[in-house]
Amino acid sequence: MTLKAVVTGCGAYLPEHVLTNVDLAKKVDTSDEWIRERTGIRERRIAGPGERTSDLAVNAARAAMRAADVNPADIDLIIVATTTPDLTFPATAAIVQAKLGVLQGAAFDIQAVCTGFIYALATAEKFLVSGQHRRALVIGAETFSRILDWSDRATCVLFGDGAGAFVVEAIPEEAAGERGVIASYLRTDGSLVDLLYVDGGVSSTGQVGHVRMQGNKVFREAIERISEAMTTVSRQAGISPTEIDWFVPHQANERIIQGVVKKLDLRPDQVVSTIAGQGNTSAASIPLAYCQGVADGRIKKGDLVMIEGMGGGLTWGAALLRA
Ligand code: ACO
Description:
Helix content: 25-40%
Structural class: alpha/beta
CATH architecture of the largest domain: 3-Layer(aba) Sandwich
Number of strands: 13
Shape: globular
CATH superfamily of the largest domain: Thiolase/Chalcone synthase
Radius of gyration: 18 Å
Number of domains: 2
CATH class of the largest domain: Alpha Beta
Largest sheet: 5 strands, mixed
Bound molecules: acetyl coenzyme *A
């Protein structure tokens, strides 16, 4: 029996506290105008003092399970893409599993920074189509505000906190029809670690550290690598990128998104963008944007959706799915 990995529900969660550009301009030497012009960001959400990445993930996962009409007893795989885990170990996915009351299956984290959700979805797809697992929660969740240097205006204005989740189910091809993950493409170039990293860690400094980024170099790499990933995935699926219905990018910078749209001849009205209200939520940004597209009625069952990401590593990748 041929199985397909179909997204049957998605859910989103954003912390309550809103931090606007105007608020930020009171802390560092920046302005609402500079941030909006260079990035498209107006405001972002920040997790409350007691709020952990697993709490954000659990809220998004519950919403996705409601949308897919499934219970904790139905889930046998949880993958959390995160750069900001609750603890050094165990995996945040294990903590999420316990909080959700899931008593069976496997749970683990994936660390590919802003590309994490693409890596997580591609991994889940392989586990599901092999028949090893039946129903997965694929979650992107971040409390990125906890690893920011709030005195560095070049990075602290870019990021926000949040979580998004997919329920992905193994469904026989005859029942799934055209729906499901069609293709995915993952890349890493570890020689570019210095462009974007956190200057701390368990085996190096013993401290968590803060985000360090050569923003303009990352910017230059982004459009090329994202376009390459999207073109490759399209070729694997035997389509042209212009045939997609919706483009749901990682939300790093509105100018990067528009650069990709231009390079691949997409239409601006095909883009689902949440960057203005959320900033860059790293691994959470793709499912958050996807859920926005579903919630406002743009992404409908059967639509062809391209998702992509690029982040620290450098890592980058894309996936094509029929909703
Ligand atoms: N407010 C005001 N001025 C600022 C700010 C700020 N918040 N930040 C930087 N500047 C200044 C710089 O100091 C510099 O001043 P100078 O010319 O006097 O030296 C000037 O603005 C230009 O700086 P650049 O870094 O060249 O600005 P750029 O146009 O490249 O925009 C940005 C910066 C927005 C960070 C952009 O480079 C970018 O978006 N890069 C990609 C980010 C990204 O995609 N990250 C990947 C994903 S994140 C992840 O994986 C965790």
